[in-house]
Design goal:
about 425 residues; binds pyridoxal-5'-phosphate; 14 helices; Rossmann fold; binds zinc ion; alpha/beta
């Protein structure tokens, strides 16, 4: 399998455009990046990856000195991206929260929470869209589309609107959290509710894209992952600034495994540039819900491919996915970094969501899976007590108000009277 952690920087093929090209991760076929619309390999249908002749070191990343514009967030990493600036709101620069009480309860040397819910539309999907919509402009397409468990549709609608393009989203009927549908709707997407799960929506929208209806911006699109790899760069830089070392492990929720793939790719590029040693790459640790855990199954059984789960169910609707399309990129990422994958129950997810909220960090259920997974791996001894860990929380609490209401306490009705309120409080 390709995607070795210590693969040298590739030489640019003739089809490269300014040192950037697309390569198939299965057969190594290369393609010009912006000439035609293409999502997978023409030869073997394998996943494509964006490659660069000259991957950057930390020194080449922007200084972050400017408060706005290209020198902040995702675009601070423009040397590692196919363009200098995208359609931006702007995204990235998310907090790396300290959570001393959870750190103590879990029992690790250090625990930080990278809260991607603090992006413009409330999830990390914005990092992918700022690059993806820029590429759509380069390709000259007029309409964008995605299948979504919710957050991709919210981000696509917002960034499509920002870029003055039409947007079409396919959602699994009845299985998308209210905040996300509201965003997609108000930002102007045309919303189709499909009588099927996310995987069925993706099958349909892939076919629509193949027939030229719209440009596909699911994480199958390799350019989206370019934006998302900047999560890994921010974690490394910020963690190093505080601890003088990189984290041992990054724990993240897994749906289509786009982030797992993207973080691994970013780290490989730093290794290629000589900016990071192989031993310094954090162990990528994926977490899925028990009711939707095909990646965990593949990792546990040592398989290179996943078995598609037809029936998936979990309260964490953002990761209610049975056929993670980026598995061929993510499985090597987990394996080659000495990471692992683990499944958690919905109740463990809700407990972790409460735990984070108690420390002021409001996340949606899928996000809390990372912390739930860390707790479980610590209990089983897979994670050591001397590890320094970053958990990724992918989306904001307000994305899924119903789940938040259910996880939180009930409001108590009281009469409109001070004495009665005092009686109620103390009585
Ligand atoms: C999209 C999403 C995920 C899944 O991420 P992948 O990169 O597809 O594995 C997890 N959590 C939230 C909140 C999401 O929106
Ligand atoms: Zn191929």
């Amino acid at each position: 399998m390709n995607l070795a952690i210590d693969a040298p920087a590739p030489a640019a093929p003739d089809c490269a455009d300014d040192g950037t090209w697309l390569a198939c991760i299965e057969c190594d076929e290369t393609f010009a990046p912006f000439e035609d619309v293409r999502y997978t390999c023409d030869e073997c249908d394998g996943l494509l990856e964006v490659r660069y002749a000259d991957p950057p070191t930390f020194d080449e990343f922007g200084s972050g000195a400017s408060a706005d514009g290209p020198d902040r967030g995702v675009w601070r990493y423009r040397e590692a991206l196919p363009f200098d600036l995208g359609v931006t709101l702007p995204e990235g620069d998310t907090p790396l929260h300290r959570v001393p009480r959870i750190e103590e309860a879990v029992g690790v040397d250090a625990l930080r929470i990278k809260h991607e819910g603090m992006n413009p539309t409330g999830s990390f999907k914005d990092r992918g869209m700022t690059v993806g919509v820029r590429v759509a402009k380069e390709l000259g397409v007029g309409a964008l589309a995605c299948a979504s468990t919710g957050n991709t549709s919210a981000a696509l609608a917002a960034y499509g609107g920002r870029g003055d393009m039409q947007t079409l989203v396919l959602l699994p009927a009845g299985k998308v959290a209210a905040g996300k549908v509201a965003q997609a709707s108000l930002h102007g997407a045309r919303i189709l509710e499909v009588d099927g799960n996310f995987d069925a929506c993706l099958d349909i929208v892939q076919e629509l894209a193949a027939r030229g209806e719209a440009y596909l911006l699911n994480s199958l699109n390799p350019f989206r992952l370019e934006g998302q790899k900047t999560i890994g760069f921010e974690i490394l830089e910020e963690f190093y600034a505080d601890y003088g070392t990189f984290p041992d492990r990054i724990v993240l929720p897994v749906g289509n495994a786009g982030n797992t793939s993207a973080l691994y790719k970013g780290f490989r590029e730093l290794v290629q540039a000589g900016a990071l040693d192989v031993e310094q790459v954090p162990k990528l640790t994926g977490v899925q819900a028990e009711g939707a855990a095909p990646m965990v199954e593949a990792v546990e059984e040592g398989n290179d491919e996943i078995r598609r789960w037809e029936d998936v169910e979990t309260r964490a609707t953002a990761i209610r996915i049975g056929n993670p399309v980026n598995a061929p990129k993510a499985i090597p990422g987990i394996r080659n970094t000495d990471g692992t994958a683990v499944a958690v129950s919905d109740n463990e997810i809700t407990a972790a969501q409460r735990h984070l909220a108690a420390e002021g960090v409001g996340v949606e259920p899928a996000s809390a899976a990372s912390v739930a997974g860390l707790k479980k791996l610590r209990r089983s001894g897979v994670v050591d007590d001397d590890e320094r860990v970053v958990c990724l929380t992918t989306g904001h609490l307000l994305k899924d108000p119903e789940a938040a209401y259910e996880a939180g306490g009930d409001p108590e009705p009281v009469p409109n009277d001070v004495e009665a309120v005092l009686d109620h409080l103390h009585g």
